[in-house]
User: What shape does this take?
Amino acid sequence: MLDQRVLHVAVGLAVLGFVVLQVSRRPLAVPRAHETLASCVFGTASGLARGLAGASGPIMASYMYSLRLSPRDFVMLTCLVYLAFDVSQLSGIFYADLFSTTPAGGTHSSSSRRCWLAPGFGLWSRRALSAETFRRIVLVALAIIALNLLRKGLLA
Assistant: This one.
């Protein structure tokens, strides 16, 4: 099996490359005619990243960003995708009888709060910010996530 640090570096580099490409003169934009193929490629990569490194979000967010969705549609689709990920993950946890009612190391409540911060910010910002400002914030968030994945892979 691949070392998780290698996977963090690979996903971090891919997402950082996407961010650099988006700020270049020729940003990636998936045309409608290629959405089906692109969704299969990004979906497979995201599923592998989630299963192997627990890091599917940056890849899915990169794909949704490249679709040039409105802030409203971006937030809605992001919430639906994460809901689908969570349902599938919970199904696997219950199926494998890995469910525990005690939080691991007391991190349960802080993790829950963090899980609500991003969608809450997304719901607020889709109305309060211009579409261009929203897209810039998404790129900055993706860059920070990519750098954190690189840190985890290289310094852990």
